[in-house]
Amino acid sequence: MENTIVRAENYNAYFGDNHVVKDVNISINKNEVIAVMGPSGCGKTTFLRGINRMHELIPNATAKGKILLEGENVYDMNAIYVRAKIGMVFQRPNPFPNLSIYDNVVAGYLLNGIKVSKADKDVIVERSLTSAALWKEVKDSLHKKGTFLSGGQQQRLCIARAIAMQPELILFDEPTSALDPISTSSVEALFHELKENYTLIIVTHNMQQAARVSDRTAFFYMGELVEFDDTKQMFTAPADQRTQNYITGRFS
Amino acid sequence: MEAKIGTRNIKSMIFKGIIVFFAFVITLPLIVVLLYIIKQGITQVNWTFLTHVPAPPGEKGGGIINALTGSFIMVLMASIVAVPVGILAGIYLSENPRTKLAYYSGLCVDILQGVPSIVVGIVVYFWVVKPIGGFSAIAGSIALAIMMLPIIIRSTEQTLKLLPDSLKEAALSLGIPYHRVILKVIIPCGFAGILSGITLSIARIIGETAPLLFTALGNNYFSLKITGQMESLPHVIFTYATSPYDDWHDLAWGASFILLLFVLTLNIVTKLLTRKWKIQL
Amino acid sequence: MITSPVFTWAGNCFVNKPPNFVENKRLELSNGQLKWETMFKLLLKVMSVLLVLIIVGVLITLIIESWPSITSQGIKYIWGKVWDPVQNIYGAYPFLVGTLLTSFTALIISIPFSYAIAIYLGEYNPKGWLSDLLKNTIELIAAVPSIIYGFWGLFVLVPLVRTLEMKLDILPYGVGVFTASIVLAVMIIPYGASLGITLIRMVPSPLKEGAYALGATRWEVIRNVIMPYTRSGLFAGVLLSLGRALGETMAVTMLIGNTTAVADTFKNVFFGPGNTMASVIANEFAEADHTLYLSALIELGLVLFVVTVIINMIGKRIITRVTKS
C-alpha cells in the first residue's frame, strides 16, 4: 500500500456535458512503467491530463473524484505545485523556441524565477541530459537553440526538462507518435533507464509499444477503465472481451 | 464559332488591360506626392532647421525643434500608456476567446478602429483638458494612446493565436504559474509580431493631427512641460501650411519631409519585423 | 568499451541528489506565486473592461455634452439650413450634405481602382516581385498622413482644379467638394483594395477550375465566378472605406474651403467650397465661445460617431460572415 504513488478514486472527467472519463479506480506503484492504451477518443489522454491537473486548462473541462498523489488529493493542492511535482512529455516535442538547450533543461527553474547557482545548474543540466541520453550529442552545443535539434533529440530534451524538476512521476502523452522509428526506439530504451528512479505512465495507441515497455497495462474503452493488469497477462490472456477485441484488432 | 471564341478572348484581353491600367495608375498620385514633398522639403532641412524654433513671419531661418521634441514626447507618453494596456488586452482576447467580456471588448476594438480621430479629440478635451483647465501634452498623449490601442491589441491577439498551444502546455506542465507562462514564454516567442504592431501603431499616430487640435494644440516656443501646450510635427504642418507666409510654407514643407521620413521608416521596420516573424513560423 | 549513448549513464542520475532546494522552493514558490497569478488574470480582465469603458465613455460624453443642443434644436438640427452661432440657430444640413457628397464622390472614384487592385493582386498576379511591389505601394498610400495629402493638395491640386474650373466657366475657387473628394478617393483606396485582395484569394480554386474547364475565358471567370462569389465581401470593403471617408478630417478641412452657406446650384455645390461635419468641428471647436455653440458642434461629433460605428459594424459583420463560411 505504501508503495502506491498515484491512486485514482472514482475519477470522472467531463468536457462540458461530454462525460469522457467514467469512474476510474486505479492504483499505480512506485518505479513502475504503466502503459495506458485504447482506441482514440477513449479518454486515456484526458485521464493522464487529469493526474497533473492539465485537463482543467481546457475551457469547460471539469473533473470529479480524487487523484491521490502519495496519499494527498491533487485537487486539494495548488495546481502549480502538482504540475511541478509531476513531469509531463507531450505528443509533439515542444522545447521553448526562445531558449537555448541549456536553458530549456532548467526551464522549470528559470521560468519560475527559482534562484539556482550556476554550479547547481550545470549539475542539473548534465545529469538530466545524461539521463535523457542526450548529453553526448549536445554537450558541445548547449547554447544553441533547442529547436535546431532533430525531432527525437527534441523529445529527449523535453524528457530532460521534465527530469530536471526531480519529479516523482512522469506522464507521457503518446511521446513517440510524432517521431521516426529510430528516434522512437531511442526514447523507448530510455523508459527502461528511467524506471530505476521514476514512475512512468505512458499513453500510447501503439500496442506493440505498450507490450515492449510497460510492466502493467491499463486498457480504456469509451471512457471506462476496462482492464488493468500485468502487461504479459493482458496481451496473452485478457480477462475482458473488449480487451480481447482491441488486442486482436477488431477495432482501433 | 471560331470567330466567337476570338472575340471572347479579345474581350478578356481588353478587360485585363483595363484592370492592369487601373491597378497601376493609382501608384502615380503616391509617387507624385512623395516626390513633391521630397523636392520641396529636402532643401529646407539643415542643422538650423533641426535645432531652432520657428522664426516669426517675415524672418528667414528658424526650425522645428519644438515640434520634433513635442512629437517625440507625446508619442513616447502615448506608447507608455497604450503598449502595456494594448498587450494585456490583446492577451486577454487571445487567451479567452469565448467569454462574454472578450466578445464585447473585441467589439469595442472594432469600434475604436473606426472612430474618426476628431471624435477622439473632442472626447479627450472633455476628459482631460477641461478638468485640468488648459491644453496640455498629457491630453494629446492620451488621445494618441486611444488611437494606438486597437492596432496593438489586434496585432498582439493575432500573433499569440499563431503560437502553438503546445508551448503553453509545456510551460504549464512544469508548474510555472500562468502569469510567468505569458510573460516569460508566450510574449518572448511572439515578440516580433507584437513589436510590429507597436511600430505600426506609432507610424499611424505620429501623423495624426485631428486628435491634437483640441488637446495639445501647439506651441511656438520650445517646451518640455507636459502639463502645458506642446507643438507636434503634424500640427506645425497644419498651422504653417494654412498660413499666408511663404517662409512658413517652406518650414511646413521641411516638417512634412521629416514626418514622411519617420512614417516611411516605421513602416519599413514593421514590414521587416512581420517578414521575419512569418519566416520563424 | 563502446556503448550506445542510451546506456552510458547508469540510470540513477540523482544518486546524491543536488542540494535539496527543489522541494522546499517549489512549495514556497507556489504559495507566493498564486497571488500574482490571480492578480495577473485580474489585470488582463481589467484591461479588457477598460476598452469597453472607453467606448461607453465616448458615447456618454458625446451625449452629455451635446445635450443642450439636442434639446434646444430638436430634430430640426438635421435639416436646418442655417448655421448661425450669433443667433444660436444650428442646422447641420449643409455639413451633412457636404459630408455625404464628398464621401460618396470619393467612394465612386475609388471603387474602380480598389476593385482593379483587388482583381489584379488577387487573381491575375498574386505572387512575385511585381505583386509585392504593388501591394507595398498600396499600403504606403494608407501610411502617408492625412495632413500631408492636405498640404500637397492645397499647393498642387488646388491650382490645377482652379485652371480646370476656369476652362469650364465655373467660379474658380480651386478648393471645394470636388478637390477634397479626389484626395479623399486616393486615401481610401487601400482600405477597399486590401480586403478585396484577401477575399478574391479565398475563392476556392475548384470553382474557378470548373469554369475554365468549360472553356470560359479569364474575364468570364472573373465576372461569372469570382465577382458573384465575393460580392458581399467587396460590398463590406466599400462600407469600411465609406466609414474612413466620413470621418477623415485634416485633408478635407484643408481642401474643402470651409463655408457654412449652402450653394444654390448643384454645380456650385459640387465644385464650390463646402464643409463636412469633421471639418466644421476642426475649424470651429476652438472658437466656440458659448455652451450652445460648442454643444451643437459636439452633436456633429455624436452623429459622426454613431454613423461610423453603424457602418463599421455592418461591414465587419459581413466580413466575419463571409470569411467564416
TrEMBL record, chain A:
GO terms for cellular component: membrane. InterPro entries: AAA+_ATPase, ABC_transporter-like_ATP-bd, ABC_transporter-like_CS, P-loop_NTPase, PstB-like. The keyword ATP-binding applies. GO terms for molecular function: ATP binding; ATP hydrolysis activity; phosphate transmembrane transporter activity. The keyword Transport applies. It comes from the Bacteria. PROSITE patterns: ABC_TRANSPORTER_1 (PS00211), ABC_TRANSPORTER_2 (PS50893). One of its GO terms (biological process) is phosphate ion transmembrane transport. Gene3D superfamilies: P-loop containing nucleotide triphosphate hydrolases (3.40.50.300). This is Phosphate ABC transporter ATP-binding protein. It comes from Mucilaginibacter corticis.
From TrEMBL, chain B:
The chain crosses the membrane at residues 12-38, 72-94, 101-128, 134-153, 181-206, 251-273. It is found in: Cell membrane. GO terms for cellular component: plasma membrane. Belongs to the binding-protein-dependent transport system permease family. CysTW subfamily. It is a multi-pass membrane protein. Keywords: Cell membrane, Membrane, Phosphate transport, Transmembrane, Transmembrane helix, Transport. PROSITE patterns: ABC_TM1 (PS50928). Residues 68-270 form the ABC transmembrane type-1 domain. It comes from Mucilaginibacter corticis. Pfam families: BPD_transp_1. Its main location: membrane. The gene is pstA. This is Phosphate transport system permease protein PstA. Signal peptide: none annotated. InterPro entries: MetI-like (IPR000515), MetI-like_sf (IPR035906), Phosphate_PstA (IPR005672), Phosphate_transprt_permease (IPR051408). GO terms for molecular function: phosphate transmembrane transporter activity. One of its GO terms (biological process) is phosphate ion transmembrane transport. It comes from the Bacteria. The keyword Transport applies.
Automatic annotation (TrEMBL), chain C:
The keyword Secreted does not apply. Keywords: Cell membrane, Membrane, Phosphate transport, Transmembrane, Transmembrane helix, Transport. It is a multi-pass membrane protein. One of its GO terms (molecular function) is phosphate transmembrane transporter activity. It is found in: Cell membrane. GO terms for cellular component: plasma membrane. It holds the Pfam family BPD_transp_1. The chain crosses the membrane at residues 42-64, 92-120, 140-161, 173-200, 233-256, 292-315. Part of the binding-protein-dependent transport system for phosphate; probably responsible for the translocation of the substrate across the membrane. Belongs to the binding-protein-dependent transport system permease family. CysTW subfamily. This is Phosphate transport system permease protein. It comes from Mucilaginibacter corticis. The lineage of its organism: Bacteria, Pseudomonadati, Bacteroidota, Sphingobacteriia, Sphingobacteriales.
